[in-house]
Amino acid sequence: MHRSAARFSSTLGFLMGAVLMLASSSAWAGGGRKVPDLRRDTQEWVRPRAAAAMRIPVTFHLATDSGASVASNRVVQEWVTRANEELSPFGIEVDVVAVRRMPAGWSEVTHWKTRRALAGHAPHDGTVHVFAIEALDEQGRRARRVRGLHWRYRGLAPGLRGREYLVVTREAPTTTFAHELGHLFGLRHASRADNIMCSCRRGQEVGFSLSQGATMREGARRLLARQDAGNLGPSRIARRRDRR
Ligand SMILES: [Zn+2]
User: Fold this and answer.
1) Rounded to whole angstroms, what are the CA distances from 17 to 22, 33, 136, 218?
2) How many angstroms is it from 138 CA to the middle of ligand 1?
3) How far is the CA of 148 from the centre of ligand 1 (A)?
4) Binning pLDDT at 50, 70 and 90, where does residue 9 land?
5) In this model, does residue 120 exceed pLDDT 60?
6) Which pLDDT does position 137 carry in this prediction?
């Protein structure tokens, strides 16, 4: 009895040792062993499939100068492509449903009255309105030139209730549109220079963080809901200006 118990325990010890070896070797061995490719395997469930993505319909308005659009279709396409690269991991997809040319007189937005008037071109039609313009100044101060803007009206004026739009200037970096969408989906500025929400001179190697992604998904869900309702809560005009 004693001998077989000892044999059993040594067998058990051997087996446990083998299991441990197997576990540790599969944890860090590459080579010939069949190790699950976590990166590939998780992509299927971490990255949402197209059908599960929230589709955000967008209307682009191109300001014109002497009859020509200030921003070309190619430039706008670059903005959209970059935004979708950054948003798709979080299940959000920007879908351009219309590109319209604006009448003359909207290429520069340098006064709050112009911003307010611009809201008249952003009707409640279930799409997010984006204006591609030449120049955007902060309250007419040329020294405070900004690249993009997220404008939202939260007052009580009946004609403006619920109006919300984005502005991106022609010479803005390709990340500016994604940055303004971040505001639209509820993000504030971030301090890290490698974050897309940094209000700083960003490089090309920037992105959203995972927690920002979660916030944006919730924000996008709310945006779609309020576009359906066509109504925003009371408060005030909220706008964020971005130098870059
Ligand atoms: Zn900003």
Assistant:
1) 8, 18, 68, 47
2) 13
3) 7
4) low
5) yes
6) 81
